[in-house]
From TrEMBL:
Membrane topology per record: Multi-pass membrane protein
InterPro entries attached to this UniProt entry: Prenyltransferase_related, UbiA_prenyltransferase, UbiA_sf
Compartments (UniProt record): Membrane
Pfam families: UbiA
Domain of life, source organism: Bacteria
Assigned keywords, A-Z: Cell membrane, Membrane, Transmembrane, Transmembrane helix
Organism listed in the record: Mucilaginibacter boryungensis
Annotated TM spans: 7-27, 33-57, 125-147, 153-172, 184-202, 208-226, 263-284
Keyword Chaperone appears in the UniProt entry: no
Name used for this protein in its record: UbiA-like protein EboC
Length: 286
């Protein structure tokens, strides 16, 4: 139920946020290492709790569309799923709160938006994807909050994961019954805008070459299955495009880290990619 491959991408978001805050520069990592670890654990708990509640609220629908999932198949009871989901969300808030009240507030906001998406907004064609995008945007801010004084300077960067996840969530509507080419083309445009935004900041920070090296495989990973889905927008192809989009978040986060951090911080995040890909072969991503 927790979708471990996806959890790894949420950790990458936080690490990218800490890089944007400058935690990997000027010897700042060691004195703040405990805070970085706590925030990584926090986001893992928040994502796990959110995805469990996704299955909780979809239990009746999954009986029809996805009977192999944990709740409709009887592998876990609805009551236990609610219990475990609640424990994860509360743990995520507490872990972030240990770092700072600001971090705890961001974690609480992520929990609220995750529940709001699962219960209500996911059924709306526009506000659902936007809601999910806000969850990822706040996740990036959760990483930046490792140094709370950096949030006023960089909070607007959260718009990038908002736009990116909006795109993925929008096209994911077609995973079961197929989707429209229009949504896929819109996603391609939004992916390009996101890439251009990162490249612009890497240019301003004199890190264009390093970021571009990371963004090339990122673009290959997201556009190859997306173009296949555009040619034939059946559920299977759209599912592959969604899966690639989610896991490719790691490379996007690595590009952020290369732009604001060091090559070593970027490589640290890149190393999460093979772990996520391996987990994606064992556990469902969507």
């Amino acid at each position: 139920m927790m979708r471990p491959a996806n959890v790894i991408t949420s950790v990458a978001d936080v690490l990218a946020g800490t890089a944007i805050a400058g935690i990997f520069l000027h010897g700042s990592l060691v004195p703040h290492l405990h805070a970085v670890i706590l925030l990584c654990l926090s986001t893992a708990c928040l994502y796990s709790g959110g995805i469990i509640f996704n299955d909780v609220f979809d239990a009746d629908l999954d009986k029809v569309e996805r009977p192999e999932r944990a709740i409709p198949s009887g592998k876990i009871s609805l009551q236990n799923a609610i219990l475990f989901g609640s424990i994860f969300l509360v743990a995520g808030i507490i872990l972030a709160g240990v770092v700072s009240p600001v971090s705890g507030s961001l974690a609480a906001a992520i929990s609220f938006l995750a529940l709001l998406y699962n219960k209500i907004s996911k059924h709306h064609f526009f506000f659902g994807p936007l809601n999910m995008g806000f969850c990822r945007g706040l996740n990036l801010l959760l990483g930046i909050s490792v140094l709370t004084d950096k949030l006023p300077a960089w909070y607007f960067l959260a718009v990038v994961p908002v736009v990116y996840i909006f795109s993925i969530t929008m096209i994911s509507r077609g995973e079961v019954h197929g989707g429209s080419k229009r949504n896929l083309y819109i996603a391609a445009i939004l992916y390009s805008i996101v890439t251009g935004f990162i490249l612009w900041f890497s240019y301003l920070n004199n890190k264009l070459l390093l970021s571009a090296i990371i963004l090339i495989p990122f673009l290959w990973m997201i556009f190859k299955p997306l173009f296949k889905a555009i040619q034939n927008p059946v559920g299977k192809n759209i599912g592959s495009a969604v899966k690639a989009g989610v896991i490719s978040l790691i490379l996007m986060d690595a590009a952020w880290s290369a732009t604001f951090g060091t090559i070593y911080s970027a490589l640290l995040i890149v190393c999460l990619l093979p772990i996520s890909l391996w987990l994606a072969k064992i556990f469902a991503v969507t």
